[in-house]
C-alpha cells in the first residue's frame, strides 16, 4: 500500500503528483498490462534482447 503524507499547507495537486510518482515506481500498472495477454517465452526473450541491444547502443554513444 502506498502512503503519501500531506504536509501542512501543501496543495492537493502536489501530493497527487508525489503519489503518481510512487505508484509508477512500483510497476503495478506495467505488470498488469503485461499479464493481460499471454506472451510466449521466446517472444519475451526476444524483446528483452532487443531492449538490451538498444540500451547498449545508448551507452556507447555517451562514451
Automatic annotation (TrEMBL):
Keywords: Ribonucleoprotein, Ribosomal protein. It comes from Parapedobacter deserti. GO terms for cellular component: ribosome. Pfam families: Ribosomal_S21 (PF01165). Belongs to the bacterial ribosomal protein bS21 family. This is Small ribosomal subunit protein bS21. PROSITE patterns: RIBOSOMAL_S21. The gene is rpsU.
